[in-house]
Amino acid sequence: MSPEPPPLTRGARRILEVASELFYWRGIHAVGVDTIAAESGVTKRTLYDRFGSKDNLVAAYLAARDRRWRELVTARLEAASPDPVARVLVPFDVLPGWLAPATRGCGFVNAFAELPDPEHPGRRIVVAEKAWLRDLFHDLLVEAGARDPDVLAAQLLTLHEGAIVTHAVAGDTRAVAGARSAAEALLAAARP
């Protein structure tokens, strides 16, 4: 999981909240620090004092989003039935609620497209989030006794991400249910 950041001042929290909304809805490159500072009600100096750079603010936005996603999935797993198939499908089950306010698709994928430098701190967070989900699928598949958990984890990640894109781009509200159904079929075929 993304490391827990040091406690933020009220002003820094406001900057991060505003930046998160702007980065998601308008895009990272389309939003400058002047806009973030103005809409946060702080000076640019305060923004730089709290985050150091726009790149660090982008990384903080993605790290906060990553923590929220992982906490959502983890909480649902903790509350899930012990049925191993149901547990593997939890990342699909949380998607409808996660996507409801997110009509621009996956904030991580959007950021990845805008951050071509592999050393950008935000890009590293995006890559880690997708690797975490693939690894989670893998671990849950092992618990479920599925054959070829590496291959199946990659397939489930592809279905999961495809559902997010199809939901956003094509406006297909059935995409998540379709991906979940396909994941369930793959899982049934992979279990003894």
How are the SSEs placed, and which strands pair?
Elements lengths: L9 H17 L6 H8 L3 H8 L2 H26 L4 H5 L1 H4 L1 H5 L7 H8 L6 H23 L5 H21 L5 H16 L2
Helix content: over 70%
Q: What is the count of β-strands? A: 0
Pattern of helices and strands:
HHHHHHHHHHH
Strand content: under 5%
Number of helices: 11
What is the CA-based Rg, rounded? 18 Å
Using the 3D structure, state the CATH architecture of the domain at 59-190: Orthogonal Bundle
Largest sheet: none
Q: First CA to last CA: what distance? A: 32 Å
* Fourth-tier CATH superfamily name of the domain at 59-190: Tetracycline Repressor, domain 2
**Unreliable runs:** none
Q: Which CATH first-tier class of the domain at 59-190 would you pick?
A: Mainly Alpha
Structural class: mainly alpha
Mean pLDDT metric: 93
CATH topology of the domain at 59-190: Tetracycline Repressor, domain 2
What global shape is seen?
A: elongated
Q: Concise description?
A:
With 192 residues, this protein is mainly α.
What features would you describe in this structure?
The chain has 192 residues and is mostly helical. It has a domain at 59-190: Tetracycline Repressor, domain 2 (Orthogonal Bundle), CATH 1.10.357.10. 73% of the residues lie in helices and 0% in strands. Helix 9 crosses helix 10. The two termini are 32 Å apart. The model has no long low-confidence stretch (mean pLDDT 93). This is Transcriptional regulator, TetR family. Residues 9-69 form the HTH tetR-type domain. GO terms for molecular function: DNA binding. Residues 32-51 bind DNA. Keywords: DNA-binding, Transcription, Transcription regulation.
